[in-house]
Design brief:
It is built from 13 helices and two strands. It is an all-alpha fold and 319 residues long. It has two domains: 54 residues, no CATH class; 244 residues, Orthogonal Bundle (MetI-like fold), CATH 1.10.3720. The chain has a two-stranded antiparallel sheet with strand order 1-2. It is flat and about 85 Å long.
Length: 319
């Protein structure tokens, strides 16, 4: 392999040098990124195209048109993939993204330029080093339920029973109803938010430190309080970075899988699209249905990804 790469580079440079001088700057980058593009095409693009084709076929390889997609949108609102779509859009897309952004921004501002800043931020970032499976197991213990009157092993139930409240079955309780269960979905989102807030905090903290101190001091000299400084100076200047972090979190939300798989297994109406794809493939053994869900997920993620890349380029252009 090293010999092949060396031959490719030498041959590419030889061809570039035979081109007119004005064309060399445009061609040379493509020579260098060529191997990477080939790998991307081989390991990402071709499987994606194969999945799209398979989404129109049954397990026997026969063409079934849009039947696999129609089955995912049948029996509104509680059948097919509707529960997973509802959970992804309403709970994960909105609450997970907003909670993580808000907590990350608050922590970035509160611990900016304070004593022991690096230690505190390292502790907050530490859950990022934990695998999603381990994170889910930790929070299973946090949410653990015992019947009333017995010692509560779960931390949250131990706290609420201390204040003479009945313990809560956090991961199974479908309050307020099984048609629109909020409690257990928010419990999952709370666990996932705990694991990812450090990521948002670090990125937003870097953006905050990029704001010139002279602007902040000038605002304070003009009589602005800390809240006004944040609203009028810090927040507007951080907005491009906030948008990039927010769209990244949207992608994470649409791909949510690990926490749901470990903590509830998609039961009690906590299903999400990625977990439904897994179930259709490995539990039901239906390749066509699983591919259809994968394509739905891909179609949902691609616009956000394109927007995120454009925002990232806009942020880089301003620097």
């Amino acid at each position: 392999m090293p010999a092949i790469l060396a031959a490719y580079i030498v041959g590419g440079e030889f061809l570039v040098r035979r081109l007119p001088d004005k064309n060399r700057p445009q061609v040379r980058p493509w020579i260098w990124v060529g191997p990477a593009l080939i790998l991307v095409a081989g390991f990402l693009l071709l499987p994606a195209l194969g999945t799209i084709v398979q989404s129109f076929e049954n397990n026997a390889g026969s063409w079934v048109g849009f039947n696999n997609y129609a089955s995912q949108f049948s029996d509104f609102p509680s059948g097919g993939a509707w529960v997973a779509i509802r959970n992804n859009v309403i709970f994960w897309l909105i609450f997970y993204t907003v909670f993580t952004l808000v907590f990350g921004l608050i922590l970035a501002v509160l611990f900016d330029r304070v004593r022991y800043e690096s230690i505190v931020k390292s502790l907050i970032f530490m859950p990022m080093a934990i695998s999603s499976v381990a994170l889910g197991i930790i929070w299973i213990f946090m949410f653990q339920y015992s019947t009333p009157g017995e010692p509560q092993v779960g931390t949250l139930n131990a706290i609420i029973t201390f204040f003479h409240h009945d313990p809560v079955v956090w991961l199974q309780d479908q309050w307020p109803s099984d048609k629109f269960n909020v409690l257990n979905n928010l419990a999952l989102i709370g666990a996932a938010t705990w694991g990812i807030t450090g990521f948002a905090m670090v990125i937003l903290s870097a953006a905050l430190k990029g704001i010139p101190g002279e602007l902040l001091e000038a605002a304070r000299v003009d009589g602005a309080g800390e809240i006004t400084v944040f609203r009028r100076v810090i927040f507007p200047l951080m907005m491009p970075t906030i948008v990039v972090v927010g769209t990244t979190l949207v992608i994470f939300a649409l791909k949510a899988f690990d926490v749901v798989y470990v903590m509830t297994g998609g039961n009690y109406n906590t299903d999400v699209l990625a977990f439904r794809m897994y179930e259709q493939l490995y539990t039901a053994g239906n390749n066509g249905h699983a591919s259809a869900v994968a394509v739905i997920l891909l179609v949902a993620v691609i616009p956000v990804l394109i927007f995120n890349l454009r925002q990232f380029r806009a942020v880089e252009a301003r620097r």
